[in-house]
Predict the structure of Sigma-54-dependent Fis family transcriptional regulator.
Amino acid sequence: MNVPIPADHRRAQAREAFFERGQIPTGLIDDAIVHSWQRCSAASKSVSEQVQFDTLSRAGLVELMDSNRILLEAASQPLEQLGQTVNGAGYSVLLTDSQGVALAARRSGRCANTLINGAFRQGVNLSEATIGTSAMSCAVSERRPVLVSGVEHYLHANRVFNCAASPIVDPMGRVLGAIDITRGNALEPGSALSLVQQCSARIERQLMGMLSPWLMLSLGWEAGDRSAPGDLLVALGPDGQVLGLSPRVRELTGLAGTDATMGFQDLFDLPFEALVDSFRSRHQPITARMHSGLSFSLRPAETGGRKPARPVAVSQPCRRSPESADFGDAALGRQVPVAIRALDKGLPVLLLGETGTGKEVMATALHKGSALASGNLVAINCAAIPETLIEGELFGHADGAYTGARRGGAPGKIEQADGGTLFLDEIGDMPLALQSRLLRVLETRELTRLGSVAPKQVRFQLICATHRDLSVAARNGEFRDDLLYRIKGMTLRLPRLAERSDLASFIVDRCRELTQGSRQLSAVCLERLADYDWPGNVRELVFALRHADAFAEPGEVLELGHFPEEIAAPRTAAARSRRTTGEGGTLDLVERAVIDEALALEGGNVSRAAKRLGIGRATLYRRLKAAGQSSH
Ligand SMILES: Nc1ncnc2c1ncn2[C@@H]1O[C@H](COP(=O)(O)OP(=O)(O)OP(=O)(O)O)[C@@H](O)[C@H]1O
């Protein structure tokens, strides 16, 4: 009778075979681990290396968070839920990028292991090159969930880890990173794998849901079946190009991913035009066959409570969803309704401000407050699109405008904004030739698609944004001055974060919002944050708060030590005097914000708020009175 070898023995035998006899251990441990050992050994990594778990520099962290913004947004809820589910079982949770750098960590309150707690921090480099074999690096290399326990880690030092990880693949089939759970005790293999797999599947669904394609196609199992499973989705562009596949479609087609050249007809034996015509004329699902022979009924996907997506101008409303907008700064707050009235009267609005000051958030708020709020908000970043493509993006193209152009042509962003708002971000970077064409549209309210001679009437309101000084650009001949006059009906200047009059309460509000009310800032910490210069503006503040939230233990008050080093570093005397002189100095603002927060937390009860603040009721009344007087 064959007695199964206990897992610990198999791992020990595999290690002995590989490291002592130079053999490939087959059938003893997961091949993914053997492949990783081979890579580490080929890179001459020593098994007795010590690991440091250093974090990136602050600038590196900001860049990391920014370049993984979409993944972080998609992973935020699933990660939170996984953290709550596994915390009691002693698992810590980690999200890494595709290189193995930790993007977010949820350390278990039950984990006393200093090595795990040291590794599970945002910005720690946990790549294979740095820490050797890990579940994350195996999952990313093999594109499948992997368990790595104890001695299966290449480095002796990492034997305390027992980990399960699953890769996160985006709709194009690119591996964006991995989700990992780890603890010191042995894993329960089945449940650990299933937990990370379910979490990565949820993140992948979120990523698919974040696409705003021209047409989201839903595949049903049988023709006429209206109960499509909802997880068989294909995102398509106006020419039928495949912009993304849901994981289940990738499985069905056997495709690892898609690229810019893949079209609808590479998947189905049906011309894309026939699909579009069928949806337009009959509003019925249509049956189509994959090249593998499998038949599906295709229909536009139901998008939540909204109308099913139709093959007409479906807008890409915003690059990312803003946190709720707060324009509490007195000067700015007064201008918002004026800007909305300007839009309602047909005047364009120009938003000026440094990067990260909230120009996109403001554009969204203005659109939502305007009379055309029920129309599309169509955003285009003039700096992000190659010069050769931007004309087609803005103006669309006519039937047969170029070889391969879709039958019937395709609308551009301006046409998609008809009846709504066109938001031209970074307009200062628009090529000169295009500025002339845009000017003509603004003057005549008519546009002509590429390859067409027939003009079309369009009605949209215009919001533009830039961080550049357009008068200087106009003087240098880089920006048309006649266009400048056309776009600056009303100019709204977004203040630098450090210049906001409500800085301290803005910080408290963002903290409450980003941590769903679960965190408070200590008074010392708030004073320093309100005194910091914030070169990256609100974007940097959002990042700093997320950073602190990840570093602090659950329920802990946020202290300076939880924030990125540069923010926490002591201020120079010059900075101190710059930020604390004049009326309503930082300390006053901080005090007011701390008092407001205590009052809000105690439902306006002054006695309880005073107790919470550790001061007497009379003192609190006196301070409230003083603050009231100074603000009048
Ligand atoms: N008033 C606000 N309230 C809440 N969050 C805000 C506010 N303003 C900006 N943010 C947040 O700050 C970040 C940057 O905002 P946004 O993208 O609007 O800035 P921007 O000025 O358009 O930047 P860029 O010029 O670099 O594109 C986003 O995460 C956004 O949600």
